[in-house]
Amino acid sequence: MASSSANIEPQNEIGHAYRFTPLPQSETEHDHNHQDQPVSFSVESTNTRPAISEYSEEIFSISARACEMIQDLVGLTLLMMLIWLPLYKHLGIPNKDPVPPVFVLNSMYLSNFTTGTGELSATWDAKFTVRNTNVSSIYFRSIYFTIFYKRNPEHALSATSSYPFYLDLGEYVKLHLKFTASDAKWDDNGTFLEKYGLVEEMGKDKAKDGSLNFGMQMNVEAIYYGETWVSDVIMSPHCEDLTIQFLHNNDSGRLANPNRNFSVPIQWKPFSFF
């Protein structure tokens, strides 16, 4: 018995769906022997895509909007700079000379002082007070201390530093620092003190008067915050004639003239954001 069949192919790669429609037959042909019938089909695309020109127009439109936004942003930035820079120059500069904070050496204790064979051993234990008396706020970024013999800063014996801190108007901070002779600024051969004869000189002064004179200086970097301005500040406090009086000819002594105020040279420049 003959049968009629049609081979149906699967969908193609771009998603076409095939729809098959048999050809019309007459009644007589339908009554005759069944033979294979020809099959025709039509194709309809189920995947619709916009034209290439439409994509090009859309990309061009996006690019134009982006350019307009960039132009607006640049224009707004320039306008803000024109307004801000004159205001910054007017308000960003202090209208009077800087007034330094108050630095006070409250006390100093010298221990383990020994000299011999060109070497020095000593420890200075010092307490300070720093007070802000004149500006809204001060940020002390760094403070370096150097102690030297008599009045010559080149004859540095020891150095140390403090942690950074803020002081608002009327506030103060107490610092407790230690200097040791091992922190001294030696030369390349390690004979700085012996080269200038300082060890021998200090030994003789102690034996003669039972006392020694020292000096101290600081290098301070800070930021002053005023009402409408900000400024970088450099200070160099210093204090001389710090007399250590030894106790009963031993190796320890105390500051004979405590609560000494430092002289504080100061300079500043406008704080720059650019």
UniProtKB/TrEMBL annotation:
Annotated stretches, region: Disordered: 24-43
Superkingdom in the source lineage: Eukaryota
Name assigned to this protein: Late embryogenesis abundant protein LEA-2 subgroup domain-containing protein
